[in-house]
Write a structure and sequence with these properties.
The strands form 2 sheets. Strands 1-2-3-4-5-6 form a 6-stranded mixed beta sheet, with helices on one face. It is built from 5 helices and 8 strands, in the order αβββαβααββββα. The protein is about 30% helix and about 30% strand.
Length: about 140
């Protein structure tokens, strides 16, 4: 009887410790470049993807193996160490939205993807409010 009680308590502790937090901001180690995962129970936002396969490997540590959907990926700009991981992520995960700034010069390989949309100055995803710190359209007209 004690064995079963101890086993039940151990399983409960393991379950509670392995559950994802209600909300989290995780800075992923992708070497040079950046990748930030923002998640809550129902949604994930990945800001930048780092360089090549490293983001896919790093994000796999924080998403359940059965979760093969990333809701939103925001690409801050198209320097290779901020977007190149997107190729590998698109092979491994279903990505609902890929958001880029309207001033970004998107590589030709991505121009046909239907998930791409322009980021607005202020937007909200997964219960998180974002505000771009980038010159507005009017800045370049003056």
């Amino acid at each position: 009887m004690k064995k079963y009680l101890l086993l039940s308590i151990s399983l409960l502790i393991f379950y509670l410790a392995s559950r994802p937090p209600e909300q989290a901001v995780i800075f992923l180690d992708v070497g040079q470049g950046s990748a930030i995962l923002i998640q809550n129970k129902s949604c994930q936002v990945l800001v930048d993807t780092g360089n090549y396969y490293k983001a896919t490997h790093a994000i796999g540590k924080f998403l359940p193996k059965t979760d093969n959907v990333i809701d939103h990926i925001i690409i801050s700009h198209f320097d290779i160490d901020h977007y190149a991981g997107l190729y590998n992520l698109l092979e491994r995960y279903t990505v609902k939205n890929i958001l880029v700034h309207h001033f970004s010069q998107m590589p030709k390989a991505f121009k046909g993807l239907p998930q791409f949309a322009n980021i607005q100055e202020e937007f909200s995803y997964c219960g998180v409010d974002f505000r771009l710190l980038w010159p507005s359209k009017d800045y370049f007209r003056s």
